[in-house]
Structure to design on (157 residues):
């Protein structure tokens, strides 16, 4: 049995200094203010939702490699809901929009794989209600010149 994968993240905050989080060599400003004016940077809730979205995208890439699921682009929207007493997340809702010509049965298979093999998805799913959809968006056909086809707008004189 292989050793568990380890992730290391460092966060710092100081009086009069912006709070930052460093992970995988990247530094991100974060909001850790309590009761003051929000900094405009992501706070713990947004970071949790972002980890969830990244997990879905990473597992979608995994599906490309393992089952040959072909897609051009993907977009994930996540809404995380928390309650105050006791403080905890109670629901995570997501929508994955994937530009693909794959048949619906393959899109459904990918959705099953996203739910089954996502580490962050499974961890949060054991703590709160996690539900969502994967929507296939048909690709825009290319014109013979290789550029995307666009509707021509004709103005009336």
């Amino acid at each position: 049995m292989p050793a568990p994968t380890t992730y290391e993240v460092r966060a710092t905050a100081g009086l009069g200094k912006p709070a930052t989080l460093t992970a995988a060599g990247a530094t991100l400003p974060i909001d850790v203010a309590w009761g003051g004016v929000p900094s405009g940077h992501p706070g713990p809730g947004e970071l949790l939702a972002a980890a969830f979205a990244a997990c879905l995208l990473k597992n979608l890439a995994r599906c490309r490699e393992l089952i040959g699921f072909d897609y051009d682009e993907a977009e994930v929207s996540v809404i995380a809901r928390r309650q105050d007493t006791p403080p905890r997340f109670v629901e995570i809702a997501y929508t994955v929009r994937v530009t693909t010509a794959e048949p619906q049965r393959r899109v459904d298979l990918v959705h099953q794989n996203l739910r089954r093999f996502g580490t962050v998805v499974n961890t949060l799913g054991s703590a709160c209600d996690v539900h969502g959809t994967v929507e296939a968006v048909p690709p825009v056909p290319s014109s013979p010149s290789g550029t995307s086809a666009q509707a021509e707008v004709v103005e009336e004189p």
Summary: The mean pLDDT is 91. The longest helix spans residues 44-67. Residues 37 and 96 are 32 Å apart (CA to CA). Residues 43-137 form a domain with the GMP Synthetase; Chain A, domain 3 fold (CATH 3.30.300.20).
